[in-house]
Amino acid sequence: MSSAAGPGVVRGGALLAAGLAVSNAFGYALNVVASRVLGPDEFGAFASLMGIVLVSYVGSLALQSVTARRLATDGPAAAPALLALGRRVAFLIAAGLAVAAPAFSAFLHLDATQVLLVAASLFPLTLVGARFGLAQGTERFGALAVLYIVVATGRLGGTLVGLAVRDTMTAGLVGALVGASVAAVVAARIAPAQHAVSGVPEPGAAREFAVAAGALFSFFALTNVDVLLARHQLDGYEAGLYALGAVVAKGAFWFPAFIAVLAYPMLVDETRRGGAMRVSLALVAASGALLTLGTALVPGFVVDLIGGNSYAELGDDVPLFALAGSLFAVAQLLVYARLALGDPRAGLRVAAVLVGLILTVQLVANDSVPAIVLSVCAAAATLSLAGLVSERRTLSVGSGVGLGEEADRDGVPGGDVDALEALAAEEPAGRREDPERPQPAR
């Protein structure tokens, strides 16, 4: 591929950043409106339900990861079978949460009907994961950006409409269900399968999905379980304060998310992996440092902007939430780096850190907002350090195309273009086989 491909991927990165920015803007608007309309006590309950959505949403993310990887390695003919797998997974996730609704209701002090509404909305939200993967695996980043906006508009915009119609949590959840269903229909139009529909999943894809889902479930449980634990351990007011702090953490976590999405097809390709890893890691770390410093300088302004005077007591704890989200952003990139190789052990260390965090909060650090968020920071730092150790060979100088290095393939001089353009100028990921790279199960 010629070097002209570089600017195209950089433009795709800009579109992804814009698409995720719109999606995150909806997320922040939802939290701002809900925190003000519902008040600290009910907003704490609402945040708990959103935590369930985010943890369950890993099914969609795993479908995206497997679909993108399979399209990169097997080509677009695999798409219909992967969509068939998506339908099965969506049903299982929605049905599973519906069965568990009474247990969640009792643990989180919620109405079981509200949990059932969340379960119903997870069916269309899981289905769209395969559509994301179709666009990402073929490096159609513009279409992927549009998909992010469509799904955010449907789910989050629908919730906002529901809250506007009636200022209750149930109304917001009904709006989310309707909006997510409409978004799934639109997503199928934007990223259709180019081959005949198949009812048989791609051979080995279910096994690969299980690996990705296990790793991502552990990771997103890790990044959201603190809100549930705070709801369980703290009183209603303090849990509401923690829920608002978690909004800051999510902002720091999701702000650089487009970098991992853009880098993923390159991380699948061993010839581009080293450079992509180094550049992406540097950008994510820099983003986290700036956001944490910014919140430390103006914590009161951040609290007032997001939640208003009712949450003023959160005060100086805000930078800790930004730090936790930033560390998790680094950890997320490193987890995806392992999934790009099809590493069946990708989720083991995540699960270990998750268990450690739950035990720490349940048994020791549970008497205040700072105690819980400091435990979260420690867990995120531990996972990030473990990921860096695993990637030490990839990150070493001379592995792949990196900053200031000259690429000797396709006549692309590495020193003359931006680092990401140099990476993108390599042949698209997936059409080559590397004997040292783990291959998906067949």
Automatic annotation (TrEMBL):
Subcellular location, record wording: Cell membrane
Transmembrane intervals: 43-63, 89-109, 115-134, 141-163, 169-188, 209-229, 241-267, 279-298, 318-339, 346-365, 371-389
Keyword Membrane tagged: yes
Compositional bias annotation for Basic and acidic residues: 428-442
Membrane topology: Multi-pass membrane protein
Alphabetical keyword list: Cell membrane, Membrane, Transmembrane, Transmembrane helix
Sequence segments annotated as region (Disordered): 423-442
Primary location group: membrane
Keyword Cell membrane: yes
InterPro entries named in the record: Poly_Biosynth_Transport
Protein name: Polysaccharide biosynthesis protein
